[in-house]
Amino acid sequence: MAGSKNGKSEGLVYRGHPLRRAGNIIYYGTMAEKYIIMMQVLETKKVQDLELATKVSIQLQLTDPELRSRERIVKKGEKDSLYAAMDFAEVWLNRALAGKA
For the segment 62-94, what is each residue's pLDDT rounded down to a tens digit? Predict the structure, then answer.
């Protein structure tokens, strides 16, 4: 968690990019940039009292609001854990923002 100088929380940040969750969808990055990552938890399994993601869809998307949703998708894939998905998300987003997508 990152905090600002006045002590207010700015939300979750992973390796320099913000994370936002809406239900089973996690957005990584910011709409102010050219690209963002959308991860969707497709399947989970219960381990003790925790729900663990066992299938996560990852999409590198353009943030251009003029494009239809299908036109925004630059790259997509699936991983078998949220940890693996986050790993790929960071690499994909950093490469795309550096112009190497």
Answer: 999 999 999 999 999 999 999 999 999 999 999
Helix H or strand E encompassing 69: helix 69-72
CA dihedral 85, 90, 91, 92 (to 10 degrees): 80
Q: Whole-model pTM?
A: 0.82
Q: What is Dmax (Cα atoms) for the chain?
A: 45
The pLDDT tens digits of the residues spanning 21-53 come to 999 999 999 999 999 999 999 999 999 999 899
The residue among 82, 21, 23, 87 whose CA lies nearest residue 56 is: 82
Pairing mode of beta strands 25-28, 35-47: antiparallel
C-alpha to C-alpha distance for 77 and 66, rounded to whole angstroms:
24
Report the distance separating Cα 52 and Cα 82, nearest Å. Answer: 8
